[in-house]
Amino acid sequence: MSCDDLVCARCAHPVAEGRCPLCRANRDRMHQAGLGGMTPALVSLALIVLFFLTLALEHLAKG
Predict the structure, then answer these.
(1) Cβ atoms within 10 Å of 10's Cβ, excluding its own
(2) Residue 29, Cα to own-chain centre: how many angstroms?
(3) What angle do CA 13, 31, 29 make, to 5 degrees?
(4) pLDDT tens-digit series, residues 1-60
(5) What is the pTM of this model?
């Protein structure tokens, strides 16, 4: 979910517009959320690398 989809309960405008202090605070909080600031692409890349490392270690352990 992104802030484009949310409507502020205080001012009844989209949170993405940041018209009131509550909108701005929530928009900033949502943009800072994540796994240490990692983008979804970096998380996916890290998972793929981890998968291949696991396969390589398993292959080395058998042979």
Answers:
(1) 11
(2) 11
(3) 75
(4) 566 778 888 898 888 888 899 888 888 887 776 566 667 888 899 999 999 999 999 999
(5) 0.46
